[in-house]
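Summary for the steering committee. The consortium agreed at its last meeting that each partner would contribute one worked example illustrating the joint modelling workflow. Our contribution is presented below. We chose a case with several input lines so that the handling of multiple components could be demonstrated. No manual editing was applied between input and output; the record is shown as generated.
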Amino acid sequence: MKSRTAQRIAFAVLLAVSCVVFLPVVSIFVILVKEGGGALTPEFLFTMPSEGMRSGGILPAIIGTLLIVVCAIAVTLPVGVLAAIYLNEYAKDNLLTRVIRLAIVNLAGVPSVVFGLFGLALFVMMLNLGVSVIAGALTLSIMELPSIITTSRNALSSVPASFREVSLSLGVSRWRTIRHVVLPNAVPGILTGAILSLARIAGETAPILFTAAAFYVTRLPHSLSDQVMALPYHLYIISTQIPNMPSKLTYGTALTLVLLVFLMSLAAIILRIIFRRRKKW
Amino acid sequence: MVEKIKVERFTCWYYDVLALQAITLAVHEHEILGIIGPANSGKTSFIRSLNRLNDLNLTFRKQGTVLLDGKDIYAMNPEALRRRVGMVFAMPLSLPMSVYDNVAYGPRRHGRRGKKRLDETVEKALVAASLWDEMKDRLSDSALKLSGGQQQRLCLARTLAVEPEVILFDEPCSGLDPISTAKVEETMLELKQKYTMVLVTNNIKQASRVSDRTAFFLSGELVEIDVPSRLFVTPRDKRTEDYVTGRFG
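What follows is the complete predicted structure of the assembly.
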């Protein structure tokens, strides 16, 4: 076979494989919009469910999901950024930091249902927080810690080393150098990573299954120690536990969840574009 | 003649690679000491040892002493040392902020507050770096919009704003055109009244134009140090002669 023909065939195969990646995304969207698009009315999004969830809206599930993920990020972002600062700016390569790095990698590999059980044992039972927004948020925050640390470290290490040298050469301390030169230039990357994490944990079911999610609540949460409904868990319940559930509402719920995640990712992308345009080096 | 900096048998390594070998020399107060030599001769290692910027490199090891006004700099707090021994880098490294904020960066971090005092410091530093006339109406512009030569003088002003005693120049004109280079050199000569300076340069002519004494480094060794009129005209060492006459390097 001529090498040019071989190359053409290879490219065609690679293109086909790439399209296979693209296909599920499109088909998920098409099916959800076709089956559930009609359900997306303001009433569906902004009212309480009624008739054993067979009609009415999904407001408590939307609020619950938003509440849990925002609390989770509020906890995990400061911890993750501080850890990233230590690992990237201060830590020497020794046994301790190697153990920490290993722990981060392994934490990222733990299955999410294990996080759920861990959260149940530690936050719900041992710390006596009960099944609540705060217990679910803490569970998710531990699960998301490795990715926050990794994206923050990447953001920090992308700040040119010369900026640090200039600041240090002026007799400025290492901490002030980080605070005034490194961090301001790393914020865009850190924020983008945080929003993508937000989007990812919004769809998580297993970690909140035992720690935060309620089957059905009749009122909106009043405090962080309330149980809440959450979109992924709600979706699971109405697809498997409720007989005679109108399929339009099930698909509508799934579509809402996907759109929520999509909007968050979109926000991260827009933020990245804005910052990249402002980036001056 | 007062010896501002005294280097005694200074040897250093990165990993196990020898970078400087038993350097002994003095920098006199209010002089410009030029340092010339080919790539890898240890020039940059040498001046980065004078403000301990080499400490950032975890593989750096050293022997011997460096005295500033008779005190061992490796026994000092490095931050206190770097306030007294400033540095201008090879590339014009402006921070991504305004002209004003660049110059005010050091004083602010060292706790200088109050708009009036900062304004005075910034103006004084820009005047000393011969940049005030060009910059007085552009203080809030981004420093990265300036030309290379202006940025390099801005970096000098930023160093001056911390009020050091010694200024180290690490090939400050390597990225500049001849006119910008002339401006930087002119500024250096003006600053001589107040500061002690060490100038590392690849440009032999520059060393002969501005330095009071010139040191020739080769493979981590100090080959010869003398006033330019002798070092460039009647060098004692054959290697110096070969280098300054352009036979290698």
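The beta strands of chain A are 49-50, 55-56. Chain A is about 75% helix and 0% strand.
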